Amino acid sequence: MVKLTDVAKRAGCSVTTVSRVINNYGYISEKTRQKVHKAMSDLNYQPNSVARSLQGKKTQLVGVIFPSIANPFFGELVENIEAQLFKAGYKTILCNAASDKEKERTYLQMLMANQVDGIIAGAHNLGIDEYKKTGLPIVSFDRKLSDNIPIVSSDNFAGGSLATQTLYDHGARHIYFIGNPVLDGHPTQKRLQGYRQKIQELGLTAHIHPAQFGESLELKEMAIKELLQFHQVDGIVATDDLTALTVINVAQQLNISIPDDLKIIGFDGSRYIQNYAPFLSTIVQPIAAISELLVKLLQERIAHPNNELKENTFQLPIKLLSRKSSQ
Amino acid sequence: MVKLTDVAKRAGCSVTTVSRVINNYGYISEKTRQKVHKAMSDLNYQPNSVARSLQGKKTQLVGVIFPSIANPFFGELVENIEAQLFKAGYKTILCNAASDKEKERTYLQMLMANQVDGIIAGAHNLGIDEYKKTGLPIVSFDRKLSDNIPIVSSDNFAGGSLATQTLYDHGARHIYFIGNPVLDGHPTQKRLQGYRQKIQELGLTAHIHPAQFGESLELKEMAIKELLQFHQVDGIVATDDLTALTVINVAQQLNISIPDDLKIIGFDGSRYIQNYAPFLSTIVQPIAAISELLVKLLQERIAHPNNELKENTFQLPIKLLSRKSSQ
DNA sequence: TTGTAAGCGTTATCAC
DNA sequence: GTGATAACGCTTACAA
Description:
2 copies of one chain form a homodimer. Chain A is elongated and about 85 Å long. In chain A, the strands form 2 sheets. Chain A has a 6-stranded parallel beta sheet, sandwiched between helices. A 6-stranded mixed beta sheet of chain A has the order 7-6-8-9-10-12, with helices on both faces. The first copy, chain A, has 3 domains: about 5-45, lambda repressor-like DNA-binding domains (434 Repressor (Amino-terminal Domain), Orthogonal Bundle); about 60-155 and about 285-315, Response regulator (Rossmann fold); about 155-285 and about 320-325, Response regulator (Rossmann fold). The model of chain A has no long low-confidence stretch (mean pLDDT about 95). The longest helix of chain A is centred in the last third of the chain and has 17 residues, at about 285-305. Chain A is of the alpha/beta class and about 325 residues long. In chain A, helix 12 links the parallel strand 9 (about 265-270) and strand 10 (about 280-285). The relative contact order of chain A is 0.11. The first copy, chain A, is built from 13 helices and 12 strands. In chain A, helix 1 crosses helix 3. Chains A and B meet through helix 4, helix 5, strand 2, helix 6 and helix 11 of A and helix 4, helix 5, strand 2, helix 6 and helix 11 of B. Chain A binds a DNA duplex (16 and 16 nucleotides) through helix 2 and helix 4.
């Protein structure tokens, strides 16, 4: 590995001078600058960012903690975040937390040990305390961690509400919500609340059919089959697109016609779903905007770790993608 | 940040001793070991891996270069790779190359600068030379980079062949291949070759309908529409599942019944497709095995960078997932 | 405008 | 068994 001293030797100057032209500060004569540049490219020199970091410089490394990126929504979100981080000069350390507390804890330690500049957390099984202990700038997607951690999410409440209204407008009167019924600060909750409120406004009765996020497909299918067979239902607000697709698949098995007998609308609206499930209506989250904001907020936190936050909750607008399944 | 000297001070010994117990070498009395451990946990000490790396230790960082992880197949693959790397004690730096040469080049430089221990390359727009210049251990998924870089892939040839045979067995006689027709070392090629050979064995005529990987959905749809409307076709081998889904969507628009009028089979078989497109037949790549092998090979390269490779090509067996669309 | 040298937090080589 | 101390490659006072 070629290093600073090699460049200095070849350029016929001191390491300080070389460092100066690299970091571009202090006074250097144009001639020296030229010489140094030439030496660097001759030797194909790459500053060692490990050494640089040790010196107290930033590592330009960011930990991105998410559940499964095999899920197209998270895949697309992480892809966008990575792109934004790259644009801002950061490298992304991918931490797939899944629902493994121990793994998440280990990752947190690794991130500290690697002196990352910050963390974007899109899932957490761990409590606030373990995150606080890192002492690192953190921003969060969709989950509240603590008061002084900015949280970005879509307007889940409006989404739940809009989905419900949409089904109603197309004639549904027995509208069910499929999702996680437990109140735990999970974003699904706001979707559910939006649903509840709208149902009430419309003078209908709320029905919540449980389906956990991490649940196996088989269990979900069973639960959905039970719903479709034994309940009077003509509209479904699904907590996410994958659940919606499962409903559609089960409905097909049961010869229930969508949208004639049953209207359904999902949530998330990844490009992937938009392209390859073109019949599915869905509430679209603004993935690009979310990513941009997450990275922007993180940069602010990194620049001013101790600033009080004037605002810690950012809700981005969702929009309806109306397709066949709800019409 | 608490550091070695702090621990040493609290434990009442020298940094050397502390370092010894951390790295667990040399002789240390049990009593000292206890004291040090206590001091470490009292202070919640985390070794600084930046400093450690500077000292010549490995960074335990691996660059993972892939095209879009929003694509469920790559999403699942990268997720599996990340899991394997984690198990082996590595952190994953996610590099989404897309088709941006400049970005890929920059990433390569960053990876060098960060002293990563190795690279897993699942896409490359750049030539071998730029990769070789890094001097880093590399393993590749699905693309040949150079003779001394191990390449892991599925048995694409067998896949193409098996897909074709399957369609034939179910009665198709006008079987088209949709994919990239250019011969460029892209894995698609082997799928195509498998198709060609099988078609020949069966005494049929080969028809290749072009569709590029990175192409926009609209263009793909147009090309497919043209195919379905103006050609006599009763079977399609698609180069990947997403293309297959597009065919199905277009067929539906054109009121072509699948599998009655047209049988189709895709390629990749991510869990996602298996779960949410349950009607689609596909050739399943063994994602878990691929990931495992990639990481294992990379570890070998890291351990012995200069060993000659006795074998540089690893083809993992595919299998058929037979569903409605091809029956 | 340029150079010398101390220091970042570890590990490793000696010496005791 | 344990402890000084040089070294890793770089940045940055401080001198010149």
